[in-house]
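for the writeup, i need someone to sanity check this before i put it in the appendix. the sequnce is what the collaborator sent (i think, or maybe the updated version? ugh). structure was predicted straight from it, no edits. if anything looks off just tell me and ill rerun, i have time this weekend
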Amino acid sequence: MMLELVARRSGGLSNAEIGRYFNVATSTCSYILGRLESHGYLKRDRDSGRYEIGIKIAGLAHSVQQDNALRSILLPALHSLVEDTRLTAAVGVLRHGRVLLVGHVDSPEHLTVHLSTGSEVEFDISALGKVLVAWLPAKELSQLVKQFGLSKANSRNNTRGAISPSKFIQEMELVRKQGYAMNKNIPEVLSMAVPILDAGGVVCAAVVVTGTTSQVVWKRPRGLVDRLKAAAGQISSRATPFYWLHLSS
């Protein structure tokens, strides 16, 4: 109740004003306000002594806004993709040299393929990551590989041993030419991803489907690519540049 009262009053409220409103002793009110301030729910202006909403509340509000944005921007396209393909679908962005999953919908099939929103993977061992870096300018891609290195797992042939930077860059050229990436770095599991473009035609995210090699949908890869591109276009039409900027920062 105190938080609601403070939130409604522009310029904040003093200890005495809040105490009078709730008809509680000044000392009791001071104790409660102090606890709320110590946890970041309120902040007290040093000069005026008035209380305003703190950074914790602002953060919670922002999280709710982001969750609503996630639901309205990503989930409709992902649910449709899963319904059509029976595969698990997800969206990822490149952040600090790693792929961050920002949304996913699990397949209705009883599969051993599990993705988790908020998890991160290396950029070079996933279809998502390969799509996200394949369209980078050559100099930027080389710098990324140099700065973060490449995984010891060679996802192309599922053997141990690091792929060379030159081989990886060649592979990214192929991804860019064909417009999608496929990956098999787990036995009997396949992934396919395509880029999501912003209003300026720049790759800002990627959408992926993942499932077991036995699922029949993999027998028509061209149709699957087209379905992924349709989902990418649907997501792109709903998202603003600021949405992707926040997720990747």
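The mean pLDDT is 82. Residues 67-248 form a domain with the Beta-Lactamase fold (CATH 3.30.450.40).
thx in advance!!
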